[in-house]
Structure formats: structure tokens, C-alpha cells
Design a protein that fits this description.
By secondary structure, the chain is an alpha/beta fold. About 30% of the residues lie in helices and about 20% in strands. The longest helix has 20 residues. The C terminus is likely disordered.
Length: about 375
């Protein structure tokens, strides 16, 4: 560990201290030249955000399919009226014009849809969760390799400006070895009352999946030694599942904490503190789309001016990384194999809350999502 450890509390003394040279970091979605021709499978409410992002990024969506013909037509006509509309995914996969498929559907349906797309020779982006079982996820990773296609997963938080900037700073070594990661999210999750989400015992953890993924990103895929999580109901919450969750994750030389509260009335907050032995990055705001970010290194610190947004920008970033990986013939950073490491963390946290003990990610009791009711 570096001897000149940065004091994170100095961040709050001043907004700007002179003398800090901010490293150049490319945190925006990469520009690509590969001629993508995207087919969207599973038109649903999420498709509005997905296609908003794709239209803004000038992506070429050539085909759409979904279980509800009226909704599928409405989505097609709203965003890509020239796209072909198919009544089922097999017909879409048989379209030779499609070379990349985005699968947006309930998790319970995705395994077969993803497998069919891979066998059809299409590069694939899946919305999350792409599986609720690590073993099944590993099957899909193997199948993609056997079929010679790229397989990526939309983890949109990776492309939120503050988080992507932080990830690149970790990757290039600017803040040194990561020692401590703290995330706090407070919002009103009572909107799930009367919806299928209310049938999920750990809906709070499903919403918190983004932060488990960010920890995996900041730790660059290193294995965690132990995950311990607890959940509780708040006195005033309106829904059945517990809306309070605390998770601690232990690594060999680092620790992480995620605190989630889904019973906030009239206020919200989203905060990150990422501390390395050479610097610290703090991000805080009332919600995911509105963040102020500070960087501190050595004896200086500054408030960053970052471009972009989490949503819908995260959908753009995830697709851009897949397209870039096809163009460069490499594994995407958000590959299925990489994202399975994030799932191992979140599955272990949910299993820990269920069984009341610390869990090792990937151990037998933590290989499936303990979420027997509903769908997501």
C-alpha cells in the first residue's frame, strides 16, 4: 500500500484545490464502425428506454418481435417504423439482415431466447438478470464460445458517468489499490404495491443488483472471500417484502458495503465513496441521474464536470461495448462471464439474508437466486 494515503475527509473541506491534474479518462460509450443491424426480442415497457437510447445513438434497429402484437407495433412505429415486425423470435432470428440481437424479456424466458440467438449465429446483448442460476449462466457462456458469437449483458450502471469514470481510474491505476467501497441508496420502493414485484421476498436486492455489479467492476473481477447481508422491514413501509438491506463484502485486501433503504417518503439519495491508497472518488446526488462527483489525489481535489447520463445512456454504453467487441474481435467488458461474477455476489447476499449466515460467492447454497415467487 502507498505511504501517501489520501484522507477522504479532506474532500468536504473545499470544492476545488489547485494543483490537481485530472488524468484523461475516456468514460463515454466508444465510437464504433461495425455496421450493426439490431433485432430486438421481447417488446415490453423496458423497450421504450432501450430504443430511446438506440435512437439517440443512431443505432440501426432492423427488426422487432414481441408477445403483444399491438404493443410491438406501437413501439416499432414510435422508434423505428422501417423495422420489420415479427410475431415470434424464431422468425426474427432467421432474418439474415440481423447480426446483433437484444433480448429484453422476463428472466424466466431468457435462457431459451439467448440460446436460440447464439445457435442462429447472432451476437447477443441480454438485459439483466440474464439467468437466475449460475450453472445455467455458465452454460450460456460456453454456448456463445462454441457458436463463435459475442455475448454481453446490459449492466447500465457501468455507464453512469461517475461510475464509468471511477472504473477507468481504477483500471489505469490512478487511485491505486482499491481498499474501501461504500454505496448508499435511499428511495421510495413502495410503488411495487399490488404488482408482481411485491411477491418477491428480496425485491430490494434485485433493485440493488447494479451496486453488486459495480463492486465487481471496481475489484476487476477479483473473487470475494465472504458476503454477509441482513434485511428488515421498516415501521412505515406499505409493501410485504423488507425494504431495508445492508450488505458487507470482504476481499483479501478490500471491503465493500451496500446500504439500501426503499421506504423513503419525499426524498432520495444515491451516494458512492470509492477509496484507494492514492486517491478517492465521491459521488452524491438526489437520484441516479443527477450526481455531483469529486476526485481527490495527493494534496489536491476537484469537482468533476462529467457528461452523459445513467439512463438511457447506460443502454447505449452496453450496446456500444458489444458492437466494439465484435469490431475488434475480443470479449466485451460486460461479457456474460464477467457479469456472472457480479451475480455470484448478489446471489450470495440474498442467500445470506435467507439463511442468516455469511456466504462464499459460488458456494452450493448461493448458486441460485433465492427468489421463488413472481418474475423480474
Amino acid at each position: 500500500m502507498s505511504s501517501d494515503f489520501f484522507d477522504p475527509y479532506s474532500l468536504w473541506k473545499k470544492e476545488v484545490v489547485t494543483g490537481l491534474s485530472v488524468p484523461k479518462v475516456d468514460y463515454l460509450p466508444p465510437k464504433t464502425s461495425y455496421p450493426e443491424k439490431i433485432g430486438l426480442i421481447g417488446c415490453n415497457d423496458e423497450a421504450f428506454q432501450i430504443l430511446t437510447a438506440y435512437l439517440r445513438a443512431d443505432y440501426n434497429v432492423v427488426a422487432i418481435s414481441g408477445p403483444d402484437p399491438a404493443l410491438t407495433k406501437n413501439i416499432r412505429d414510435t422508434f423505428y417504423p422501417a423495422a420489420k415486425m415479427y410475431g415470434n423470435h424464431i422468425d426474427l432470428l432467421n432474418d439474415p439482415a440481423v447480426n446483433i440481437v437484444d433480448v429484453s424479456s422476463p428472466t424466466s424466458e431468457r435462457f431459451q431466447l439467448l440460446a436460440d440467438a447464439m445457435r442462429a449465429g447472432k451476437h447477443v446483448l441480454s438485459q439483466k438478470y440474464f439467468v437466475d442460476d449460475l450453472d445455467r449462466g455458465e452454460e450460456l457462456v460456453r454456448l456463445a464460445r462454441e457458436c463463435g458469437v459475442k455475448f454481453a449483458v446490459n449492466e447500465d450502471a457501468r455507464w453512469a458517468p461517475a461510475y464509468k469514470f471511477a472504473a477507468e481510474m481504477v483500471k489505469n491505476g490512478s487511485i491505486g489499490d482499491v481498499l474501501l467501497m461504500n454505496f448508499l441508496a435511499i428511495w421510495n420502493h413502495n410503488y411495487i404495491k399490488g404488482t408482481p414485484l411485491e411477491d418477491q421476498k428480496y425485491c430490494i436486492a434485485l433493485f440493488g443488483a447494479a451496486w453488486f455489479d459495480l463492486i465487481n467492476v471496481f475489484m476487476q473481477g477479483a473473487p470475494a472471500k465472504r458476503v454477509y447481508a441482513t434485511v428488515a422491514r421498516t415501521p412505515g413501509q406499505e409493501v410485504r417484502p423488507p425494504l431495508l438491506m445492508q450488505t458487507n463484502i470482504l476481499y483479501e485486501h478490500a471491503q465493500a458495503n451496500i446500504a439500501l433503504l426503499g421506504d423513503a417518503d419525499g426524498f432520495s439519495i444515491d451516494r458512492m465513496a470509492l477509496t484507494g491508497d492514492k486517491g478517492v472518488i465521491n459521488s452524491i446526488g438526489p437520484e441516479r441521474g443527477e450526481q455531483n462527483t469529486w476526485l481527490g489525489m495527493g494534496t489536491g481535489m476537484c469537482k468533476l464536470q462529467l457528461e452523459g447520463d445513467w439512463l438511457p445512456g447506460g443502454f447505449h454504453g452496453s450496446m456500444a461495448e458489444l458492437v466494439k467487441s465484435v469490431e475488434e474481435d475480443r470479449e466485451p467488458d460486460n461479457s456474460g462471464a464477467n457479469v456472472l461474477k457480479s451475480y455470484a455476489l448478489s446471489f450470495a447476499a440474498i442467500a445470506s439474508a435467507e439463511y442468516g449466515r455469511p456466504m462464499i460467492p459460488g458456494e452450493p447454497d448461493a448458486r441460485k437466486l433465492v427468489c421463488p415467487q413472481g418474475d423480474f
